[in-house]
Amino acid sequence: MIKASFIGIGKIGQTIAYSAMTRGIFDEVVLYDIIPEFPEKFEHGLRRALASLRIDTEVIGTNSIDDVTGSDIVVISAGRPRRPGMSRRDLFADNAKIIINKELPKRNPGAVYVMVTNPVDMMASVFAKYSKEYVISTGDQVESMRLRAYISKILHVPVSQVDGFVGGEHGEDAVVLWSTVAVNGKQVEDLPKEQIEKYVKSIPGDIIRVMGGTTWGPGTIIADIIKAIVLNENRVMSIAVPRQYEDEIIHISIPTVVGSKIGPTLEDHLSEDDRWHLIAAMKDYYSVYKDMLKSIKTEGEIVS
Q1: 170: annotated active-site residue
Q2: Residue 301 maps to a domain
Q3: Binding site annotation covers 171?
Q4: Do 127 and 227 fall into the same domain?
């Protein structure tokens, strides 16, 4: 019996929940949000979709955190969304205060926590710091699929023939791991690397400016991460797992085997240049993260 809980069902939370549930991989799903009636009404819509697809998953839409108790996997997308002109890091202080939630760990010890709330890697680190639970960040798997889709488009080849991963911190500081990029199993010479990197980092902002948010791409990709965990698929995905860096637990994306057990990473299989960029990303992440932690207040105490 697999019970999954989705915490925060705004636009991205709805898309992830729908995409994951239509895979038919859960026995029970809880949709939790603080907005009165909202989860219940979303539940009604999802029940009709599942009826059409003949998927026998029990769905509960609720404003009560008690209903989340006993989950095997908890997907967290609660928080303020990114608006036009904002960076993901601009959301840190407000969303960290939401993420530091003592009720979830207390009710779901030993669950796999999947962080979606932005800035996603830092929110995973904050949650790990205060909950002491195992949490992954969905990290750069979204960027990795964006990379493959764009290479497919400019080279006019089927996207199923394109491989490649993006690593580092999710967002503007992500790095393309060029040693992993291949078409039909072969590395491609003379790729317009600067153009590709610019696209991978800038297109989300363009989509947000025009459409108000990115949903279907990330929602589907994150649902794939969830499916890989639940079905023990052992797929390689660019997610961020907790790792010790100096005095903090941090989350930086590296191609990682994802199944019911998370890991190992494929860090040792990357080129020296790619590993250097990942090390640089860790240093930058740690520096910014330590500074950001000062903006959080919990129970009247400033985090240091």
Answers
A1: yes
A2: no
A3: no
A4: no
